[in-house]
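User: Before I run my own analysis I want an independent prediction to cross-check against. Here's the chain; please return only the structure tokens and, at the end, one sentence I can use as a sanity check.
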Amino acid sequence: MSRRLYVFKNGRLSRKQNTIFIEQEDGTKNYIPIENVSEIHCFGNLDFNKDALEFLTQNGIPLHLYNHYEYYIGTYYPREYLESGELILQQVEYYKDDRKRLSLAQRFVQGSIENMLAIISYYKNRGKDLFEIETKLEAFLDEIFKTESVDMLMGLEGNSRNIYYSAFDRIIDNSDFPFVNRTRQPPSNEVNALISFGNSIIYSTVLSEIYKTHLDPRIGYLHTTNFRRFSLNLDIAEIFKPIIVDRSIFSLINKKIITKK
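Assistant: Structure tokens:
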């Protein structure tokens, strides 16, 4: 089974015949069993040359890059090998048709709010005072298919997420990790940093999964397709962020798997 490879050390990515390896600063070489790797996430300061990138292209392996602060900065995206002109035309048709685009965007938001509710319900059943937040999220869920434009839908999604974030300090059982509110670029505290880090991972992971299909990741429906490189992965990731990213953060902190220095 293919797996994702996460690289945190500094070094150089090089090719040797039919494999690649990472040579660390001390000269240690770690060979990568390329047949078992589906994507590479690079957090360290990693140099690479044309031969290594060519080999990744031949094997259809995306290379996701993150900066010193673990922000996602971009992807080396191999040339599309599952291109379908017909499917791209259909994607564009759904984007340019306001009714069709809104219908798809509503489904993304529906999945997102339903999974927010799943998280709230899980912790409410474990004694957390989340009834009011659950009620408000259910009201937002009922309003999704009453929205008349993507802009109106985005406003609803943003308001629902703010309500959902108001539950974080009630869910987290650790005074060392206050959340307060959602902040970005830069995150104001450790919880916000964990959210940003987790979201970056899931955005790039979804992008890798899209790469395995005939879909074009540049054409999104909830997030406007513009001059950004990709947007469809942002749409799809909205569904999974609550149950993968947020749930993991709550478990890591509440179980004291991670602690504050």
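Sanity check: The beta strands are 3-7, 11-16, 19-24, 29-32, 37-42, 46-48, 63-66, 72-76.
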